[in-house]
Amino acid sequence: MTDVTKDRIRLTLTDLMDDSYFTYPPTVKVRVPDDWTSVVAKQVGWEARSRLVEHEGARYALVDVVPDGGVAELSPR
Fold first, then answer.
1. How many Å apart are CA 50 and CA 67, to the nearest integer?
2. Are 1 and 42 in contact (CB under 8 A)?
């Protein structure tokens, strides 16, 4: 995680693969505050696919983040 507050989570995903070939965004599971009822994710100004799920009483965002694609920012919608 790059930065975490109650209204925003910023993260950066990196890898060692050649970015000219490997740009497919894997889905990252991120623990979010329990009071978030929805989520929006953006990476370098583009909206990333995201959704909330609950697992064993905790709330998580599933977010597609492009490795080496810059900071991804999650916030409640």
1. 16
2. no
